[in-house]
Amino acid sequence: ALVVFNHNEVTLNDLEEDTYYTYKINGSSKTYSFKTAPKKDFSFLWFSDFHSYPPCENRLKRASKFLKDLNDIHKEADFVFCSGDAIAWGGSYRFWEDFCNVKTLNNHMLVNVLGNHDYMSRGYLKDTSLYFKEVHNFPKNSYPGEEGVCYYFKYANALFIVLHNEHMGVGSNEKKEEIEKGYAFVERVIRENPSDYIFLCQHYQWMYGVNGRDSSFGYLRWKDLCDKYHIDMALSANDHVYVKSHPIYSGEINDIGTVYMQCPSCDGERGQDIEEVMTYPNEKIAFRYSTGRDTIGGIFVEVKNDKIITRLYDRDMKELDKCEITKKVR
Predict the structure, then answer these.
(1) d(Cα 83, Cα 202) in Å, to the nearest integer?
(2) Are 246 and 259 within 8 A, CB to CB?
(3) What pairs with residue 216 in β-bridges?
(4) What pLDDT shows up at residue 126?
(5) Which of 118, 201, 277, 315 is the most buried if burial means most Cβ atoms within 10 Å?
(6) Which residues of 282-309 are buried (b: 16+ CB within 10 A; e: fewer)?
(7) Are the C-beta atoms of 242 and 209 separated by less than 8 Å?
(8) Are 247 and 36 in contact (CB under 8 A)?
(9) What is the β-pairing status of strands 307-314 and 297-304?
(10) Contact assessment for residue 134 and residue 147, using Cβ atoms and an 8 Å cutoff
């Protein structure tokens, strides 16, 4: 049977900076809220890989509790950032509905990245970014074909560039033409939007947290652009292991370089065991974290006092790792 959904988009103009707004949707008693960007310093809650799946309801319960606990510690957070795989199967509308009902998400601006699970349908009958686009209303400021999926936005004094991995391909399936389009998009956006900080965001990992190998579709694909434009921080997820690199420039540890960081999963069900001694010893990696299958973790990011400061938390809200990135001179 054909199922029809109404897709509504609203654009709000003339909002005051650094201000909380509360709103309702006609016909609903539920209240939502968000905060507009301040002039300078800000912060956000960073999580990834909910893999929301109603038959495994504990995934969403564990991830939601983690996000609530992190928000209880850092109530000043301006928005929430997800590195993808919010849903187990993007083609199932019910999964998105459950995810979007998470209370912490309803009280913040949500930034989301298309993950491979968000891209796929059950049984892989149809893989498409349309599912992601139908439940979000992100800026349509990308190159043709990627509007609303690949996008950028300015927040206070920072530039966020969100990439779409799926159409670029991986391994032997790499699509050079699509990769070149991605490069051109990133370069154009950086040139046209001078900023104090630049965050480059995608779903797929920069480096493999399990064994330490550089990813061909992560670090190796984007390192030259990160070096060229002195990108402050590269955000990703996907392999469910927390990874923090040293600042890397031209393949070497250097304070002027980019910190590559990967958010762990937080569903408590699909984490991975990491090798105690990496198969591929990678001196670029400064810290890794995973507790295996039951991994739950996330990151609080602050931009203040000319620094980016990140803190990794586990399920018990214990701070496990901290990183400070000094503002670059471009």
Answers:
(1) 7
(2) yes
(3) none
(4) 85
(5) 118
(6) bebbbebbbbeeebbbbbbbbbeeeebe
(7) yes
(8) no
(9) antiparallel
(10) no
SS3 280: coil
Per the CB < 8 A criterion, the answer to whether 236 and 203 are in contact is: yes
Asked if 51 contacts 88 with a C-beta cutoff of 8 angstroms, the reply is yes
CA distance linking residue 39 with residue 229, whole number of Å = 23
Map tokens 């995810």 to a residue. Answer: 99
Q: Are strands 297-304 and 42-47 parallel, antiparallel or unpaired?
A: antiparallel
Q: If we measure between CA atoms, which residue out of 164, 140, 134, 166 comes closest to residue 153? A: 140
Round to whole Å and give the CA distance between 237 and 325: 19
Residue with tokens 């010893």: 281
Q: Is the pLDDT of residue 111 over 80?
A: yes
Three-class secondary structure assignment of 187-203: HHHHHHCCCCEEEEECC
Answer yes or no: are the C-beta atoms of 220 and 286 closer than 8 Å: no
Q: Where are the beta strands (DSSP E) in 107-228?
A: 109-112, 151-155, 158-162, 197-201
Average pLDDT over residues 118-144: 92
Residue 297 tokens read as 């973790």
DSSP characters over 282-327: -TTEEEEE--GGG--EEEEEEEETTEEEEEEEETT--EEEEEEEEP
Mean pLDDT of the 89-108 span: 94
d(CA 310, CA 261): 10
Summarised one tens digit per residue, pLDDT across range 239-249 is 999 999 999 99
pLDDT (tens digit per residue) in 141-153: 999 999 999 999 9
pTM exceeds 0.85:
yes
Residue 311: which pLDDT band, with cuts at 50, 70 and 90?
very high
Token digits of residue 45:
């809650």
Q: Which amino acid is at 47?
A: F
Which of 243, 154, 162 has its CA nearest to residue 203? 162
Question: H-helix or E-strand containing 261?
Answer: strand 259-262
Q: Nearest 5 degrees, angle CA 129-CA 98-CA 139? A: 40
